[in-house]
Amino acid sequence: MDLTERKRRILRAIIESYIQSAEPVGSKAIAQAIGMEVSSATIRNEMADLESMGLLEKPHTSAGRIPSPKGYRLYVNELMEEHKLSLQETQRINQALRLKMQELDRVLDQAGRVVSQLTNYPAFALSSGMSRVTIRRFDLLMVERNAFIIVVMTDSNIVRNRLIRLPSDLTEAQLQMLNTLLNTTFTGLSLEEITPELMRVAQHAAGDAYGLISLVVSFAIEVLESLERRTVHTSGLAHLLELPEYRSLERAQPLLSYLSEDADPARFPVPKDDPMKILIGPENVADALKDTSVVVASYDIGDGMRGVIGVVGPTRMDYAKITARLSYLAEGLSRLFGRGELSDGRDDSK
Amino acid sequence: MDLTERKRRILRAIIESYIQSAEPVGSKAIAQAIGMEVSSATIRNEMADLESMGLLEKPHTSAGRIPSPKGYRLYVNELMEEHKLSLQETQRINQALRLKMQELDRVLDQAGRVVSQLTNYPAFALSSGMSRVTIRRFDLLMVERNAFIIVVMTDSNIVRNRLIRLPSDLTEAQLQMLNTLLNTTFTGLSLEEITPELMRVAQHAAGDAYGLISLVVSFAIEVLESLERRTVHTSGLAHLLELPEYRSLERAQPLLSYLSEDADPARFPVPKDDPMKILIGPENVADALKDTSVVVASYDIGDGMRGVIGVVGPTRMDYAKITARLSYLAEGLSRLFGRGELSDGRDDSK
DNA sequence: GTTAGCACTCAGGGGGTTTGAGTGCTAAAA
DNA sequence: TTTTAGCACTCAAACCCCCTGAGTGCTAAC
């Protein structure tokens, strides 16, 4: 796509004005905006050219021009200037990262919220389900004679626990025996490898305490399953209604329900190779997103796994600002996970 | 409020029609609906009476009538027929209760979602923050030479854990010592009782491992704080837009943002004495809820604590159906917690 | 290649009219 | 006394029409 410098300036001015105002942009406004000594007629000629190249479109004959998805694409790839975060913005992100981010589980949710607040657009966060997680170790802690805590730690250093109450009493020795048995039999196994036969063998070996085996192992299975499952968290959906393009319910509702809770993780785009990806309008696969744009970033959560966080908005979203904030946050999250600062989880019972 | 039987029937018919259609109800429609051999003129006279009693109102002179909040209140208190759950509905609720309810932490969220799906209204769930929680016991589990797991259990039987990595190595003996020290010094203490002086004394006693004390104790403090904090989960906000009364953005948006994430728990009404409470329109304290109705139910989560779950919608919400579903679900939740079937939590690190 | 000028287009807003559902009142019937 | 039929009245919503003004494309001159 080779454009004259002037065309580029005009296109950029149109896009930035439209991003701001959501109103079609006329030739006169642009003539002023670019501060060149050309008349609106010249701009009109140029705009006609840009339109025939598919970079602009007209909502109707006598309105100004609006950028086409192709126009946004060119803008994003070539014209857009890096948006620098203000000190205030970085501070806000940093604070958000520090704050309440201790629990891996909530990080997703929290990250989505932060992004949504930061950008004023709805945001989503995906956990990339891990594959072939295994239990690294079991610990059984006696609490009372008829209650103990299971603590399970996976090969990816995730720790979960559960309190178990029993109808009957239990000795410390039994618990010890059980502990050893579990650690020798069920560690290093992935979900598929925990077979009913294995369970039977272990139950046999456990003697009196055979019932406890299945209690503990089914907890372990739950943990493994929950880690392999992908989940979505969305937040800031209400921001959608603040945007002029979603002031009409007919437009807002389908998108809103597409993004709403219980959304299928597969619905959401994921950056493949790059750390960040911008999908403009029809570049989205999902129909409901066909006239929205999505910006997604991924971050490292250790063990080669990546988290995904993204923003959804109208095609005229402020790409420069959003990419800047999103990538800063994603970097922060990577750092957070990388340093292992993030370590808590929680487990509770009753 | 003594009304003739006929007036009661008319009022009820008006309310139920309006609940259904959201359209003002005219005298003719009612004359048919109640199947009495009276003319619309008679109904008009009766409606005029009901209006002068404040039970009905007119949006404007030449429209039909709509129920006033006072009318709904009468309906809820006296006229409403118990809605019976269909087999299908109870099955759905039961299944929802079984499914994915293992983690206390997520119960809130999950319960809100279920309600929202069940009623097609936005729902909220509150955790009633506990007061004066204390740590009952500490367990430190060695993982590697430079990593260990903290497991903390509160007096309310909630267990949380965290993985800690250290820059330097640690002996099993040190960990043992630390463990004993923590259990003798910091158990049975509430948040306020964990003073800096106490910390200093303990650090002194810990010798070389003094740094670890603050690591572990600050984790314990985090846990106590998180339990004392009240939180809200909202879900199904998108349902709001499906309702005719919220088809105009000006009406939907304030409510939506009132309910949106990061909402203050104090905003939400809580049933005090009864297990269920209905707040109709102006009966709500919050301005944003002045022309909505809220139905809240509470359920027992053990230790004398109660969870709260509620539904928000237009004043013409289907009280019969919603109270039935909500109370069934609340009972189910109470049972679930009561039996202690609910026990998992989760804790993870890295 | 650029500009001024001009005829043309069309969404959006304002104002007026029509429609129809619903009301209140009155007078007659039960 | 209660109910009913009839009729005049009201008013939101739908529709229509016209006007306005921002913006365009084209052409002819610079």
Brief write-up:
2 copies of one chain form a homodimer. The first copy, chain A, has 350 residues and is an alpha+beta fold.
Outline the structure in words.
The structure is a homodimer of 350-residue chains. With 350 residues, chain A is of the alpha+beta class. Chain A has eleven helices and ten strands. Chain A has helices at residues 5-21, 27-33, 40-52, 69-79, 87-98, 104-119, 172-185, 196-206, 210-228, 249-259, 319-338, and strands spanning 56-57, 66-67, 123-127, 135-144, 147-154, 159-165, 231-235, 276-280, 292-300, 306-314. Chain A has a five-stranded antiparallel sheet. In chain A, strands 4-5-6 form a three-stranded antiparallel sheet. In chain A, strands 1-2 form a two-stranded antiparallel sheet. In chain A, helix 1 packs across helix 4 and helix 8 (196-206) packs antiparallel against helix 9 (210-228). Chain A is elongated and about 95 Å long. The first copy, chain A, starts with a helix and ends in a 12-residue tail after the last helix. The model of chain A is unreliable at 340-350 (pLDDT under 50). Chains A and B meet through helix 6, strand 4, strand 5, strand 6 and helix 9 of A and helix 6, strand 4, strand 5, strand 6 and helix 9 of B. The structure holds a DNA duplex (30 and 30 nucleotides).
